[in-house]
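REVIEWER CHECKLIST
Item 1: Sequence provided? yes
Item 2: Single chain? yes
Item 3: Sequence as submitted:
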Amino acid sequence: RDEATALSRLAELGVPSSAARAADDAPRLLDEVEYQAHLTLVRLYFLQSRDVDKAAAAAEEALVRWECDQALLTVLAACRSARGRHADAEAVLDRLLAAWPRHWPSLGHRGSVRHAQGKREGAAEDYGRAVELWPHDPELWARLAKVEAELGRRDLAIEHYVKAVEGNPRDVRTWGYLGSLYGKRGDYAKAAEAFTRAIDLDPKEPGYWMGRANAYLQTHRLEESEADLDVLVELDPSSPAPWQMRGIVRGERGNREGAIADYAEAEGRDAKDPDLPLAQARLLSALGRAGEAREAAQRALDRAPEGWNGAEEARAILDGHPHPR
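Item 4: Structure as written out by the authors:
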């Protein structure tokens, strides 16, 4: 555009003539003003009205002219993600990262859309590159850890979750994930510590109490495990799992009557699991209550699937010859 045309258009856009004439290059100023106008429109649609379709259309229109603009591409990718069009979002981010390969927010975003498409290795690569460029974002570390865990790389996942909670020690979900991974690795002391942090932040989440109770059980801290399970059966009374675990703990502590009661509670909430009546049959037999033991053993066999590994023990109790324990 020539100088006169640019000055005329700037006046139409409300730029004072004195400012326009003071510019060294009116066409360049016009281009900048028009760009900012387009970008403002895109952001208004996206951030204020949350009309992602209009935002995407405005961004695409602007990209015809400013074809590799970082801000416009970022918004367009966000619009595609918001509509669940993850492959399209990935294509936009590929375009952006080809021009700005070190733009860590876009690497993190591409990691998310790749993860959403099941491309775990690609997601891990993007998240890994993002945290290498910007190691100060705990959410990126948590996302990387989640992908690593899904890929079966447990130790790496733990390492990355530790980085995440170092950056955001109030991230309750990450403490929970960390506790679960420590438990799967057999590091029950650290699992208990992580679940304790999670419980401190969210004491109403049953999964954290269950995780810590199991960690205590595995390390033979039976009194602490039972105390957690006492809380849990009040917090989540409809689930059979805490009743069953408390039955195990009470049995380990020699409280057979309490264990039988807990297994019965669990059975009342899960009519399909044959291990629950078998556990009762085993304890009833040990207490010399043979008739009740046989009834429980029969219930176990009645619901047992083919190939159930408790069938032999249940039949032995029915025959009056329980397996020694």
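Item 5: Key structural point noted by reviewer: The chain has a mean pLDDT of 88.
Item 6: Recommendation: ____
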